[in-house]
Design goal:
It is a single chain. With 150 residues, this protein is an alpha/beta fold. The protein contains five helices and six strands; from the N terminus they run βαββαβαββαα. Strands 1, 2, 3, 4, 5 and 6 form a six-stranded parallel sheet that branches. Strand 4, helix 3 and strand 5 form a beta-alpha-beta unit.
Length: 150
């Protein structure tokens, strides 16, 4: 099973977290893509997808994720059987919009039939925990071996 990591970022933090996740999953065939460079038509139900997404502005998707999700909204593909996990980034000081970018990504994918796997990670930049460190720890909790047997 191939693991496809897609990141949507504004300032590069999601890209750094995506690379840290990839570093932890070297036992698998892992590819990392900026969402601006990935065609949603290339989503493959045989792959496991990891979405790493920051939050921008008033709880919106970052600029780097907008084209990807706008294409999904416009084409409305059937993603039944696609499995994904989400590592979101945000800052708790924004209250109700904390980590909203990752939540929007998950909502859009599940609305198209995809299935979210594992814990939805929500990094808080107000803490002393570095996103790369949390991403590494989170990557090791993903049930990828179990997915290989399904």
């Amino acid at each position: 099973m191939r693991v496809v990591i897609l990141f949507g970022s504004e300032m590069g933090t999601a890209e750094n977290a995506a690379e840290a996740i990839a570093d932890e999953l070297t036992a698998h065939d892992v590819s990392v893509y900026d969402m601006t460079d990935f065609d949603p038509a290339d989503l493959d139900v045989a792959d496991f997808h990891i979405i790493v997404c920051s939050t921008y502005g008033d709880g919106e998707l970052p600029t780097g994720a907008e084209p990807f999700f706008n294409t999904l909204d416009a084409t409305v593909p059937d993603l039944t059987g696609l499995r994904f996990a989400v590592f979101g980034l945000g800052d708790i000081i924004y209250g109700d919009t904390f980590n909203r970018g990752g939540e929007i990504a998950a909502e859009k994918l599940t609305a198209l039939g995809a299935i979210q796997i594992g814990e939805h990670a929500r990094h808080d930049s107000s803490t002393d925990i570095r996103p790369r460190d949390m991403a590494r720890d989170w990557a090791n909790t993903l049930p990828i071996p179990a997915l290989l047997n399904t």
